[in-house]
């Protein structure tokens, strides 16, 4: 199945971070590539949402709703910097 | 009633369906009136949430097809086979129905006239939707340099916004090019077959003019077009992409 | 929650309520759920392995695997995303067959897969006729998007335990959380006890 991109979870990320995140830049902890969150590959037809590096495929972010509470794991990223404005 | 909105929070609100317009056999444009809409930027989208009587919910994202200047919020939805949400929106929804929407969302795939550089829009299938918003906005604000749109569809009857795009071409001077990949009318003067590097080279302004490029459509289409434009010499930083999947449903 | 007039989601199927675990909806569809891109391992590079806390690791290449005795279980399957599908039909090798002659004191298993997916479950949930390595669905070779060439099939647990693109089982003495379990899903996952999340 084809993935979508970070644009598809922009609403959920806005809810979690309180700000627009598609323009945020992230660094993949596995391969070091940098890109906008909007360009990441999103697999959301799953028990949770899995966000992968478009270059190496490593898992960067996982979003899960556990008993109604949104949980986000950013362990696959070295850095995640929102852009102000 | 007091505003419940918190700064930095997106709220779900009920959009009332005003009208549905068939664009193609598979696609409808739906206009909504919203009680508390703060406006949007061309290219942004909304999340739509549906709730069944037994509490089951499904949520999807749709690009906004209307310009910030338009009266109603318009979404254009393609009915996907085996889809869960799109068949409902396209086939079941009626004027007067209310569904939950939240937005506007997105900051990456947006265009406004303050952004410098000639605009190049490359669309595959329903990927043209956010570009309607951008082009209508451009026309409304008299947005400067003439935009170029390259729009790939399976056939002429699959082209969404046919009349409007032709008008933008003839009347407003937008450079609109169509590529038909599977079948084309007799005497078709546009491009036949898939969008390739050669066609992109013809349509795009040269890298020296640093066009602002937006590509939207299915994954394979977007990746191929982005790769080709980079090969031609356009900087990756000038290219923004949005994937529309058959996974949308 | 405002109801969307006329919306019901996936095509629903009628079902005997006794067959539907709590919180589930029954469908005729077979939704494709995935945490990543579909792996495409050529069959001449495929093998199934049993390793870990065993006396002797075992491995079967594809042709040998297909030659093993197979069964055709019919099962109801339950996804943690709330969709259930009844009477699904499969062909596969029973995990009991694969574990015949395997010496172990392990209590747990981690299934590992192409693409990096893993899931953990108690060994006793894989034995006694409860689990298969399935390579046919509905009488046809299992499609890649549904886990082909072969997937683990453990229908009495939530379907995220039925790992797609499975390549083997590692027997372990400690329960080692797999992919979804690490992010909060249950180590066992019994739909009748609604064991969706850690701590349920």
Q: What does this protein look like?
A:
The complex is a heterotrimer of chains A (85), B (249) and C (200). Chain A has one domain (4-81). Chain A is 9% helix and 40% strand. Chain A contains one helix and eight strands, in the order E-H-E-E-E-E-E-E-E. In chain A, strands 1-4-5-6-7 form a five-stranded antiparallel sheet, with no helix packed on it. A three-stranded antiparallel sheet of chain A has the order 3-2-8, with no helix packed on it. The radius of gyration of chain A is 12 Å and the shape is globular. Chain B is an alpha/beta fold. Chain B folds into two domains: 12-104, Elongation Factor Tu (Ef-tu), domain 3 (Beta Barrel), CATH 2.40.30.10; 119-243, Rossmann fold (3-Layer(aba) Sandwich), CATH 3.40.50.80. Chain B has five helices and twelve strands. Mean pLDDT of chain B is 92; it is low at 1-5. Chain C is mainly beta. In chain C, strands 1, 4, 5, 8, 9 and 10 form a six-stranded mixed sheet that branches. In chain C, strands 3-2-11-6-7 form a five-stranded mixed sheet. In chain C, a hairpin with a 5-residue loop joins strand 2 (47-52) and strand 3. The mean pLDDT of chain C is 96. Chains in contact: A-B, A-C, B-C. Chains A and B meet through strand 1 and helix 1 of A and strand 6 and strand 12 of B.
């Amino acid at each position: 199945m084809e993935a979508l991109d970070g644009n598809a979870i922009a609403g959920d990320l806005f809810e979690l971070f309180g700000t627009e995140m598609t323009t945020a830049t992230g660094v993949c902890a596995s391969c070091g590539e940098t890109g906008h969150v909007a360009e990441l590959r999103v697999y959301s037809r799953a028990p949770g949402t899995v966000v992968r590096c478009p270059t190496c495929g490593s898992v960067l972010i996982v979003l899960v709703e556990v008993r109604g509470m949104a949980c986000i794991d950013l362990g696959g990223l070295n850095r995640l910097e929102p852009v102000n404005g | 009633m007091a505003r419940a909105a918190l700064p930095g929070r997106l709220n779900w609100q009920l959009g009332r369906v005003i009208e549905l317009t068939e664009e193609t056999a598979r696609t409808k444009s739906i206009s909504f009136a919203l009680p508390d809409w703060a406006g949007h930027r061309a290219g942004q989208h909304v999340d739509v949430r549906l709730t069944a009587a037994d509490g089951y919910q499904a949520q999807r994202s749709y690009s906004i097809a209307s310009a910030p200047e338009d009266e109603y919020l318009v979404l254009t939805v393609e009915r996907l086979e085996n889809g869960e949400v799109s068949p409902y929106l396209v086939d079941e929804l009626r004027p007067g129905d209310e569904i939950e929407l939240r937005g506007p969302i997105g900051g990456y795939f947006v265009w406004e006239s303050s952004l410098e550089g000639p605009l190049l829009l490359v669309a595959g299938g329903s990927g043209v939707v956010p570009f309607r918003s951008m082009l209508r906005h451009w026309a409304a604000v008299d947005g400067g340099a003439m935009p170029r749109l390259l729009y790939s569809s399976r056939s002429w009857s699959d082209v969404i916004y046919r009349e409007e795009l032709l008008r933008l071409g003839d009347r407003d001077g937008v450079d609109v090019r169509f590529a038909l990949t599977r079948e084309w009318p007799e005497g078709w003067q546009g491009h036949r077959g898939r969008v390739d590097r050669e066609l992109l080279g013809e349509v795009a302004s040269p890298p020296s003019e640093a066009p602002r490029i937006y590509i939207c459509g299915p994954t394979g289409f977007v990746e191929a077009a982005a790769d080709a434009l980079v090969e031609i010499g356009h900087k990756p930083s000038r290219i923004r992409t949005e994937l529309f999947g058959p996974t949308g449903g | 929650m405002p109801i969307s007039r006329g919306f019901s989601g996936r095509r629903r199927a009628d079902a005997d309520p006794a067959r539907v675990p709590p919180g589930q909806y029954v469908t005729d569809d077979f939704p494709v759920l995935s945490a990543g891109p579909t792996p495409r391992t050529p069959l001449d590079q495929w093998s199934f392995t049993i390793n870990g806390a065993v006396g002797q690791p075992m491995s079967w290449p594809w042709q040998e695997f297909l030659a093993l005795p197979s069964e055709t279980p019919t099962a109801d399957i339950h996804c943690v995303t709330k969709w259930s599908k009844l009477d699904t039909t499969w062909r596969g090798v029973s995990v009991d067959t694969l574990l015949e002659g395997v010496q172990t004191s392990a209590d747990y298993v981690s299934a590992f897969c192409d693409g990096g997916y893993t899931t953990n479950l108690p060994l006793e949930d894989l034995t006694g006729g409860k689990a298969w390595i399935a390579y046919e669905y509905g009488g046809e070779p299992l499609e890649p998007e549904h886990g082909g060439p072969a997937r683990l099939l453990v229908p009495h647990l939530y379907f995220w335990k039925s790992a797609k693109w499975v390549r083997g089982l590692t027997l372990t003495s400690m329960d080692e959380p797999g992919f979804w379990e690490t992010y909060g899903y249950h180590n066992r996952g019994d739909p009748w006890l609604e064991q969706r999340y850690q701590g349920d």
